[in-house]
Design brief:
Helix Hairpins; 5-stranded antiparallel beta sheet; elongated
Length: about 625
């Protein structure tokens, strides 16, 4: 071959090699371009996928699944909680059984800031981590556990890439990408791509977090609005009761005075031995009518929480058991009665007679709700409320309560009328079968005892009324019956009667005068002070005083006398005290109290008890 031919062959060979190199570079460039295109498409699809949901948990799951299997065989997501702890969130693996193995490993050995682990390094520094020989270090913090070490070896972490999740430069968590099912290893291009994914994932997680907080704020706002509406309903309900109560109290005050006069004189006339049987029967009818009318005024006063009350420390369980026979008679033969009283019931401060009235009213209401028969269950127990209880009618603050529940198997109360059930004169009964005062009276009595009354009811199932009365310290007083024996020996004793109603004042004076007492009169407290000043040489042995009077009330009169160093014996008479004379006030004033309307022997009995004390 000539020199020219050799030169030409060399040139052709060189051109052929150059073409091969060009084709190789072209293939590489094409592969790079295709890879870049695939990654751009992936990032676009990933952004769209992350934007599909603002639910926080859904977003976290989506983030963990994004790069698998595109960028690895496994992905582990950790977040930094608001309190600073590292929280394992999600694990995704192309082999489901291996994913569960990693979850068990993470649950057994959760990461902390003290753990020697590349994930902790990334969370602390905010810098990515790429290592193709990471297994020894990953095994290090579980080296003492042969089973855990075997799991890591089985998973075969050939290459590890960890990128931080940053929001406005603050590290919120990290994504750990792992290659275990092939011999491929991560490179710098993978790192850059993973950081792009992490940027989008971090922003999506932050958006979901903010959205979740906003939803929680809206939910809490709705809850507060519901609580506010319930409070407003309670306020309106209380205002209606208070308005009716004020009206009832005004009527009851005057009515009690009239009943006291009618019943008192009728009872005195019955002592006349010259009366015929017909006349005596008529008078007894008058006295009985006065007693029934007195019961009606007590019901009216209960609506306004002004019912005369004689509270004391009691064991409510004794009250419940004491009513068992009466309640069974009230319910009839078709309704069974069951009573459960817990041991060691807490002491409460209550009027036992009023508590009995509440139970009787609720039992009567239950009876009417079970015309074809059923069962009534009464439970008495101690209740500790750890947090406030709010329902449609009442807000019950946390604390220790004696709880009394009355549960029937009647027809139930429809939801739409439950808010009205405690309103006076509201009734669903037929005309002539109820006037709608029973539950309203229960509500008033419970409130008067600083308690709470609510209900739970389902139509066709039954109704449960719940009474919460606050626990008090101290031992309950023994239940005893009053002594009805009448002793009327005057011994020239002087009694000052202070009463603004002339008819009641004259009646009391007549009753006392018939028994030989010397009686002085005063129409109010100021007039009584003038009489006492004029009779200092012979002060009265006893003062009988109304509570509510113009110019000066009965308690104010006694306080004035005590301030002057005088300690009179005093008997208060009142239809209701209107908070002017509490049980504590009565003890401090050293007096006693009887309620209008009263009969003569009850007045004389109270007078004798005080004069003998």
């Amino acid at each position: 071959m000539s020199t020219d031919e050799e030169s030409l062959a060399a040139q052709l060979k060189a051109l052929e090699l150059e073409n091969v190199a060009l084709r190789a570079r072209e293939r590489v460039n094409q592969e790079v371009a295709e890879s870049a295109s695939r990654r751009l498409v992936f990032l676009s699809e990933a952004s769209a996928l992350l934007a599909q949901s603002l639910d926080y948990e859904t977003t976290l799951s989506t983030v963990a699944k994004l790069a698998i299997p595109f960028l690895g065989d496994s992905c582990v997501l950790h977040l930094i909680d608001p309190d600073g702890t590292i929280r394992y969130v999600e694990q995704v693996h192309v082999v489901p059984t291996k994913a569960e193995m990693v979850r068990q490993l993470r649950r057994r050995y959760p990461l902390t800031w003290e753990t020697d682990h590349p994930m902790v390094d990334v969370l602390r520094s905010g810098r990515p981590y790429l290592n193709n020989t990471a297994v020894p270090r990953i095994r290090k913090h579980v080296a003492h556990d042969s089973e855990a070490s075997a799991i890591i070896d089985f998973l075969g972490f050939h290459s590890v890439l960890i990128v931080p999740l940053k929001v406005r430069g603050i590290v919120r968590g990290a994504l750990s990408l792992i290659i275990s099912e092939s011999e491929r290893q991560y490179d710098e291009q993978d790192l850059l791509f993973a950081e792009e994914i992490a940027n989008r994932a971090a922003q999506a997680i932050e958006n979901a977090r903010i959205y979740g907080e906003a939803q929680e704020a809206i939910r809490r706002k709705d809850e507060l609005l519901d609580e506010l509406r319930q409070t407003q309903q309670q306020l309106l309900h209380s205002q209606r009761l208070e308005s009716l109560g004020r009206l009832a109290a005004g009527v009851a005050h005057d009515f009690n005075n009239l009943l006291t006069v009618i019943g008192g004189y009728a009872d005195l006339v019955t002592l006349d031995t010259n009366l015929s049987e017909v006349q005596l029967a008529g008078l007894e009818q008058i006295v009985q009518a006065v007693e029934r009318a007195g019961a009606l005024t007590r019901q009216l006063l209960a609506l306004s929480r002004k019912q005369p009350s004689a509270p004391r420390l009691i064991d409510a369980g004794q009250v419940v058991w004491g009513l068992q026979k009466l309640l069974q008679q009230l319910l009839g033969e078709t309704i069974s009665l069951t009573i459960h009283c817990a041991d060691a019931l807490w002491t409460i401060y209550a009027d036992p007679q009023q508590l009995e009235q509440v139970l009787i009213n609720l039992a009567a209401n239950a009876r009417d709700a079970m015309p074809e028969g059923g069962s009534l269950t009464i439970r008495a127990e101690n209740i500790q409320l750890e947090r406030s209880s709010i329902d449609t009618w009442v807000h019950i603050p946390p604390g220790d309560y004696f709880c009394l529940s009355v549960q029937d198997t009647g027809h139930g109360i429809p939801t739409n009328i439950q808010p009205k059930i405690f309103e006076p004169f509201f009734t669903t009964k037929e005309q002539g079968k109820g006037i709608g005062l029973g539950l309203a009276i229960c509500y008033g009595i419970v409130q008067q005892h600083n308690g709470y009354l609510t209900l739970e009811s389902t139509v066709g199932v039954g109704t449960t009324f719940l009474i919460y009365l606050p626990r008090v310290e101290g031992e309950p007083e023994l239940m005893s019956r009053s002594d009805n024996t009448l002793r009327t020996t005057a011994h020239n004793q002087i009694i000052l009667v202070v009463e603004d109603e002339p008819a009641v004042r004259n009646l009391v004076a007549h009753i006392l005068g018939e028994q030989g007492y010397t009686v002085l009169f005063a129409e109010h407290g100021l007039a009584a002070l003038e009489i006492l000043a004029a009779n200092q040489s012979s002060p009265p042995d006893l003062i009988i005083s109304d509570v509510k009077m113009p110019y000066m009330s009965g308690p104010q009169l006694v306080q004035q006398l005590q301030a002057r160093g005088q300690l009179p014996k005093v008997l208060f008479i009142s239809g209701y005290t209107d908070n002017q004379l509490s049980a504590e006030d009565l003890r401090s004033l050293g007096g006693a109290l009887i309620y209008k309307p009263f009969v003569p022997h009850r007045l004389l009995q109270a007078v004798q008890q005080l004069l003998r004390s």
